[in-house]
TrEMBL record:
MF (Gene Ontology): DNA binding
Name of the featured protein: OmpR/PhoB-type domain-containing protein
DNA-binding region: 1-101
Swiss-Prot/TrEMBL keywords: DNA-binding, Transcription, Transcription regulation, Two-component regulatory system
Organism: Streptomyces pilosus
Cited Pfam families: BTAD, Trans_reg_C
InterPro entries: AfsR-DnrI-RedD_regulator, BTAD, OmpR/PhoB-type_DNA-bd, Sig_transdc_resp-reg_C-effctor, TPR-like_helical_dom_sf, WH-like_DNA-bd_sf
Listed GO biological process terms: phosphorelay signal transduction system; regulation of DNA-templated transcription
Length: 270
């Protein structure tokens, strides 16, 4: 590549030339680029690209793909997109692609959590979250490759949010957790884990009344939107708050962190 170019697909796709972001105005060109980046290092067939771009492909869909590839090469360099039967591939390295950087921060957070550096883990996951800019253009992408990636994108963000809060609570950063979760709960109002964490954060910072208000708000949201009662884990945290049991609250946090450390480790011999 002749220019300093980076690619950002943790949200609406865009190119970053020499540190300056540029939106991709053509929806079809954006879909093709993002598909190649999601499959970085692997060949994506022309038929797969057609399936990502169109629900009902036009008669000359293959010719249209060739034109879009030519336009893409004009923007990022001929050598950036490699022709390989039965389609095309892109290979990006280092910090060229935000997904790769996200993966490094995410892995670093898990390593630090396992080592007992909970503050460091929270910082790593906050860095990962800072790379997320939303979904891939609000559901425009409906092909199988990008639909799967968009689902992973949202799931990975939710995981990082939950892990960040557990790490903050375990590190005794209760006020930081309150600030962080107060921003995250409205974005994920049906996520009971975030409500649990916010209740624990308020209780551990000695704001029991606020913790009870969080529970009441969670109950109303679950009832109004889903017609359900709070789950068992949320009720357990409510019981901890009602009894004003700081010891149980700390043990609940420690147990949650231990569970996540254990679940991240690969079983031996598998």
């Amino acid at each position: 590549m002749t220019r300093d170019v980076r690619f950002e697909i943790l949200g609406p796709p865009r190119l970053v030339f020499d540190g300056r972001p540029h939106a991709i105005r053509s929806r079809n060109l954006s879909v093709i680029l993002t598909t190649l980046l999601v499959r970085s290092g692997r060949v994506v067939s022309v038929e797969e690209l057609i399936g990502e771009v169109w629900h009902q492909p036009p008669r000359r869909a293959r010719d249209a793909i060739y034109v879009y590839i030519s336009k893409l090469r004009d923007r990022i360099g001929n050598e950036a997109v490699d022709s390989q039967f039965p389609g095309y591939s892109m290979l990006v390295r280092g910090q060229q692609l935000d997904v790769q950087l996200f993966g490094r921060y995410r892995a670093d957070g898990h390593l630090k959590l396992a080592d007992g550096d909970h503050e460091g883990a929270a910082r790593a996951w906050r860095k990962a979250l800072a790379l997320h800019r939303g979904s891939l253009a609000g559901g425009v992408y409906s092909g199988p490759i990008l639909s799967s990636f968009d689902s992973w994108l949202q799931q990975s963000r939710t995981e990082c949010v939950e892990l960040t809060a557990w790490a903050q609570l375990s590190a005794g950063q209760y006020h930081e957790a309150i600030g962080f979760l107060t921003q995250q709960v409205p974005r994920n109002p049906l996520n009971e884990i975030l409500h649990q964490q916010l209740m624990l954060a308020f209780l551990l910072s000695r704001h029991r009344a606020q913790a009870l208000r969080v529970f009441g708000s969670a109950c109303r949201t679950l009832s109004d939107r889903l017609g359900v009662e709070p789950g068992g884990d949320l009720m357990k945290v409510h019981d901890i708050v009602r009894s004003d049991d700081i010891g149980r609250a700390k043990r609940a946090v420690s147990s949650a962190v231990a569970t996540r450390v254990s679940s991240h480790r690969s079983p031996v011999g598998t």
